[in-house]
Amino acid sequence: MGLFDKMFGSKVSAKDSVDAKKHQEFEQLKNNYQPVLTVIEQQGVQLSNLHTDNGKLVIIGTAPTQNAANLVWDQIKLFPNYAQELAVDIKVSPQAQAAAASTQGQTYTTNSYTVKAGDTLSKIAQQFYGNSSEYMKIFNANRDQLSDPNIIYPGQQLNIPD
């Protein structure tokens, strides 16, 4: 240690050490939740903030549609400790909300489907929409008879919205 360091302190301050620790924490959380960040990117969610606060990864953004926001949350919920490690605020863009409000009250054509043994809403969604992740569309159209998207029974008649 030189005379200058004795008089004025070393080049690495405590603040630099804290900043390095926060950066390391940020990078670790970001790597842990990379699948969530990938879905955010794929769905066109505009991030306004991505940082750490009190040991949590903070994700704030605006989704282009409610479906995009739902897909992000579906991915988040795959992580068992997300509530302790994430703080997320994904809003739906005002334009998408206005478009959804303007379509309320319109009628949609629906198909009917009889559940067979071994069926799941994901399998049915894949059959009708070509995308198993659209299962919530079917669930929401049948809330009068379904309380859980994971519980359906052979013989049930489900409405399949277009």
Model description:
The chain is α+β, with helices and mostly antiparallel strands and 162 residues long. It has 2 domains: 14-101, no CATH class; 107-161, Roll (Membrane-bound Lytic Murein Transglycosylase D, Chain A), CATH 3.10.350.10. It has 8 helices and 5 strands. Strands 1-2-3 form a 3-stranded mixed β-sheet. A hairpin with a 2-residue loop joins strand 1 (46-53) and strand 2 (56-63). Helix 3 runs antiparallel to helix 4 and helix 7 (121-129) packs across helix 8 (135-141). The longest helix is centred in the first third of the chain and has 19 residues, at 14-32.
Topology, number of strands:
5
Beta percentage is 15-25%
Number of domains: 2
End-to-end span in angstroms?
74 Å
Mean pLDDT: 83
N-to-C order of helices and strands? HHHEEHHEHEHHE
Main beta sheet strand tally, sense and closure? 3 strands, mixed
Q: Unreliable stretches, pLDDT < 50, 5 or more residues?
A: 1-8
Cα shape: elongated
Instruction: State the helix count.
Output: 8
Q: State the helicity in percent bands.
A: 40-55%
Strand order of the largest sheet: 1-2-3
